Every structure is written in structure tokens, then in C-alpha cells.
Amino acid sequence: MRYNYRGGILLTVLLFIFLFSFLFTLVIEDFKATQYFSKNTKDYYAAKIMVSMFLFEVKQEQHSLEKEGQQVFSEGVLNYKCDERTIYFTVELQQQSYTFQENYSIAKND
Hints:
By secondary structure, the protein is an alpha+beta fold. β1 and β2 (about 75-80) form a beta hairpin. It has a four-stranded antiparallel β-sheet, with helices on one face. The longest helix is centred in the first third of the chain and has 50 residues, at about 10-60. It is built from one helix and four strands; from the N terminus they run αββββ.
């Protein structure tokens, strides 16, 4: 038996190319989103650690607490302003800025 089938394979090949291109694009986008999330999470926790280290030094009275000031760490710069009960922190890390606030009262010895 001899078949004289004249079908085009072009449509099938184009569909496969489209399907694999779409899947590849999804994988790349997922990878980018994961990288972005990981970097931002790392930076956020680095900023929180800087604030915790600063507060630890203040509570141990190793660092005097002024109305506003700045402390430089290896990862970035911590700026702070304080009023009677709250300290406002701005941490600048690698072109990003994080803002935190902590309730803190200074114990006065009379």
C-alpha cells in the first residue's frame, strides 16, 4: 500500500516551538521573581539586624543616644531620630531604604 499523504508539518513544528518558548519564559520569570524575593528578604533582615545591634549598644550604654544621629555599618548606614518614647530608624542598603520605629523609653536616675 502506498500512501500519498501530503500533510504539512509546519503547523505542528510552530505549535511545539510556541509551547516550549512559553514554558521557557515561565521558568525564566519564576527564576527572576525568586531572585528578587531572595535579595529583598536578605536586605530586609540585614536592616533589621542593624537596628537590633544599635538598640543593643544603646541598652548596654555603649553608645549614647542623642536626638538624632547616624551609625555606619559594613552593610549600610543607619540614621535615627528619637522623641520621648519612639526611635525612628532609616536604614540605607544598596540603593534601598528601610524605615522602622521602636518604642523606647530612657530610664532616668534622679
